[in-house]
Amino acid sequence: MFKRSVLVLLLAAFASLALADNPPRVRQPTLTPQSSGTTQLLIAVSPVNSRVVWASGAGGTYVVTTDGGNTWKSGVVPGAENLQFRDVYAVSDRIAYLSSVGANTTDFKIYKTVDGGAHWTVEFTNQLANAFYDCFAFWSPDRGLAHSDSVNGVFPELRTTDGIHWQSIAGHMPPALPGEASFASSGTCITTQGKQNAWIATGGSTTARILATRDGGNTWNAYATPLISNGSAGGLSVAFRDAHNGFVGGGDLSSNTSADAATSHDGGATWILTNPPPTPGAVFCVAYVRGLRDRHFSASSNDEDDQGQDRDDHGDHRPPFDRTVVITAETAPNFSSGSAAWTPDEGQTWYWLPTVSGYWAVAFANPKAGWFVGNNGQILKISF
To answer: Which N-terminal stretch is annotated as signal sequence (predicted)?
Structure first.
């Protein structure tokens, strides 16, 4: 009996070792190409739900679907033909915001439509020399922030509380490091969560930092990350799945070395590098597969966890895909090929998506409904 018990234990141990050496194959997500109706570069994407999605890009272009991507409608905002829409925020099939950049100071504008793109109103036009607004993000349809590179040591941040008027909150921001800036890679250098939390990823200086607020932008803290940082490197994209747990990606835009990524479990105060993503170049976009809509607008969502309870301590209650992240990465100098990968455990394990190339941004409504957008108007639906 003793020998039999020892044999059973040995067999179990060998089986465990074999499993460690040959981990079980993970089912890759389903990828479905869709037709956007444009050949312009698409830079940013914003799902409302599994049916309604907006994306934006070069040539003043936006695209929208109301049937989950089976059909897309493309359009060009009048007067914006020479601008790039580096970010988009979709509220519904009728209401959306766009932010533009161009060669001139006044080319940064914030546009809004309330009739599905038939008409657009310019809500804000930049007049500050050397400001470059990389991204914006919203807590609700009427409350949001727009983030710019620093100007003379100051971040000229904008905030709206009514979805119409944008005011400077530069006086609330922490001092910038010399040359500190963000990157308009996919419109995801800023993210919001809950009712008042927001995080901004920066680089361009000696340290890549996270700027964080927990009171809607009234006060901010700056935290160092271990990401590479120099004049062409830093944090490019940041996402948080609740008030405490987040993921930041970046790298060096001037080289094609391995991408950088790090996680935080204390609201962005401290960061730990993940295992290296299997993608060359810099991380252009990170997105939690669970999506954002339930966190922003669901009153019953446990993710609005401003009471300090870390749901990682309660694994049985953590929803499926809670720690699953998808990234896109692009390689210098043309940023026209790129790659993508995903991790089920916030960067401990990575899986390359070998057929996904040339996409700048990715975002999810839920695990079954996510979208890549990128070069030549290409759109790819991703479903776990």
So the answer is: 1-20
What Cα–Cα distance (Å) separates residue 214 from each residue in 97, 199, 217, 295?
Answer: 24, 9, 7, 15
User: What is residue 318's predicted lDDT score, i.e. its pLDDT?
Assistant: 55
Q: Which helix (H) or strand (E) holds 122?
A: strand 121-125
Collect all residues with Cβ–Cβ distance below 8 Å to 55 and sequence separation of at least 6.
36, 42, 44, 45, 46, 62, 63, 64, 88, 361, 371, 373, 379
Confidence class for position 317, pLDDT limits 50, 70, 90: low
Tell me the residue range of the domain where 335 lies.
30-383
157 pLDDT more than 80:
yes
Q: Which tokens hold the place of 343?
A: 């991790």
Q: What is the CATH number of the domain that holds 309?
A: 2.130.10.10
Query: Per the domain annotation, does 235 fall within a domain?
Result: yes
Q: How many domains does the chain have?
A: 1
Task: Give the other-Cβ count within 10 Å of 270's Cβ.
Answer: 15
In this structure, how many other beta carbons lie within 10 angstroms of the beta carbon of residue 93?
17
